[in-house]
Amino acid sequence: DSGVTQTPKHLITATGQRVTLRCSPRSGDLSVYWYQQSLDQGLQFLIQYYNGEERAKGNILERFSAQQFPDLHSELNLSSLELGDSALYFCASSVTPDRANTGELFFGEGSRLTVL
Amino acid sequence: GEDVEQSLFLSVREGDSSVINCTYTDSSSTYLYWYKQEPGAGLQLLTYIFSNMDMKQDQRLTVLLNKKDKHLSLRIADTQTGDSAIYFCAETPRSQGNLIFGKGTKLSVKP
Q: Do A112 and A59 meet the contact criterion of CB atoms below 8 Å apart?
């Protein structure tokens, strides 16, 4: 158990809909990262937050947005969903924004999104 | 651009050594990482190597780093069926906190 909690574990929805994925980082971790894992693209970095502020942005679509709340949990919002958005979405956390020392990210078990 | 390359599949027999290779692009990466993903689970850090090292050994795992060629490898000695998983190589982009992952190498261990 990494200590990172993601909900829901599975989600099935239709094209055009909007969903919210939730992540609770490890206790004490201030940085949250979102990744998308699909068969053809592998593991793609979406966005990072540190202590409530956006820190780095990757290949995140404009239809997607995220935020980190004062209690440090984070939500990833996916809207106007398309078939190609079906993927496993991972949240990870670390203590510092730059992963000092070993640089380990702690991953949740992921939220599997299926868009029909 | 940022691109970490790995072969997608590797199949070995139980007891043999497995070698998973990776090439990365960002020479400024302070650390390079190997993560393991078991079926239905998230990624877990397996090992890492500091960029000023050539080799790191940790029990059955040996990591080799060739900075000149930007090549990283992971050797698993005496591979067991429990080692069957997807192995991801990752680098650190310049001045960023996130990791850039390869697409992962699926290791299958046959008894």
A: no
Instruction: For residue B101, give the nearest of A43, A48, A98 by CB distance.
Output: A43
- The residues on A that touch B, with CB distances below 8 Å, are 2, 4, 31, 33, 35, 41-43, 45, 48, 50, 55-56, 58, 90, 92, 94, 96-99, 102-105, 107-110
Query: Does residue B93 have a cis bond before it (omega within 30 degrees)?
Result: no
**CA A86 – CA A114 distance, rounded (Å):** 5
SS3 A85: helix
pLDDT score recorded for residue A113 = 97
**Strand duo A106-107 + A111-115: pairing:** unpaired
Return the residue matching tokens 């979102």.
Answer: A34
Give the dihedral sign, CA B105/A10/A33/A60: positive
Q: Among partner residues A41, A43, A102, which is closest to B48 by beta-carbon distance?
A: A102
**What residue ranges in A1-73 does DSSP mark as E strands?**
5-7, 10-13, 19-24, 31-38, 42-50, 53-57, 64-68
How does pLDDT run across A16-71, given as a tens digit for each residue? 999 999 999 999 899 999 999 987 778 899 999 999 999 889 889 999 999 999 99
- Asked if the Cβ–Cβ distance from B103 to A104 is below 8 Å, we say no
**Edge to edge, what strands does the sheet with A64-68 contain?**
A5-7, A19-24, A74-78, A64-68
